[in-house]
Amino acid sequence: MADKELTKEEEAAARTKEAEEQAALPYKWAQAIGDLDITVEVPGNLKGKDLNVDIKKKKLVLGIKGQEPIINGDLPHEIHVDESTWTLTTSPSGTKILELHLDKVNKMQWWEHVITTAPKIDVTKIQPENSKLGDLDGETRGMVEKMMYDQRQKEMGKPTSDEQKKLDMLKKFQDQHPELDFSKAKMN
After folding, report:
1. Which residues on adjacent β-strands are paired with residue 59?
2. Are 71 and 61 contacting, i.e. CB atoms less than 8 angstroms apart?
3. Contact, 62 vs 84, CB < 8 A?
4. Which residues pair with 80 in a beta bridge?
5. For residues 95 and 82, is the Cβ–Cβ distance under 8 A?
6. What pLDDT is stored for residue 79 in this prediction?
7. How far apart are CA 86 and CA 84, in angstroms?
8. What does the alpha-carbon distance between residue 21 and residue 34 come to, in Å, rounded to a whole number?
9. Do residues 112 and 98 touch, judged by C-beta distance below 8 A?
10. Which residue has the higher pLDDT, 132 or 155?
């Protein structure tokens, strides 16, 4: 796509086209930053053994045995096969819903489509849900908490955690060397 901004009309037309393309797919899908969920409505008389679900690291086949697959293609990115699951549930209308959960390897990447031959969505328009700190892994959570702390400290005119660490080191050094004059010392 060109680097020019779309007009409101062009943007609306692109959104409408994207919505129509997605609605025409034989499945529905939604994603969070770390995973992707696919739902397919199938006849109510089917059982799990009647389905063909083959989940591979970069390929997905999903359908009813003896029929053309509903989904058959390469995934745009890798998934964790052992963390990906599928279930078959009965819907209120009497049909069944095949629910497929794919766990993304790269938990920081939005997918433009489920399989590479499907129409793409504009991932720049995705509005992610607010996540809870508890949902994050330990390292990321620590980094986010530090950033939040530093932001609060700045707002109150107090030193950030890194600045406080430097001040503490200087104080310790001053305490260890009382003979030195630090009155004209400057901190960057």
Report:
1. 74
2. yes
3. no
4. 103
5. no
6. 97
7. 7
8. 24
9. no
10. 155
Q: Are 52 and 61 in contact (CB under 8 A)?
A: yes
What are the backbone angles phi and psi of residue 128, rounded to the nearest 5°?
A: -70, 150
Structure tokens belonging to residue 22: 């997605």
Q: What is the DSSP letter of 20?
A: H
**pLDDT for res 167:** 86
Amino acid at 72: N
Pairing label, strands 35-42, 28-31: antiparallel
Q: Residue 128: its pLDDT value, please?
A: 65
Mean pLDDT confidence for 19-31: 92
pLDDT bucket at 63, cuts 50 / 70 / 90: very high
Q: Does residue 21 carry a pLDDT above 60?
A: yes
pTM above 0.70, yes or no: no
Residue type present at position 48: G
For 85, residues 6+ apart whose C-beta sits below 8 A from its C-beta are 100, 101
Q: Please, what is the average pLDDT of the chain?
A: 88
Question: How would you classify the pairing of strands 59-64 and 51-55?
Answer: antiparallel
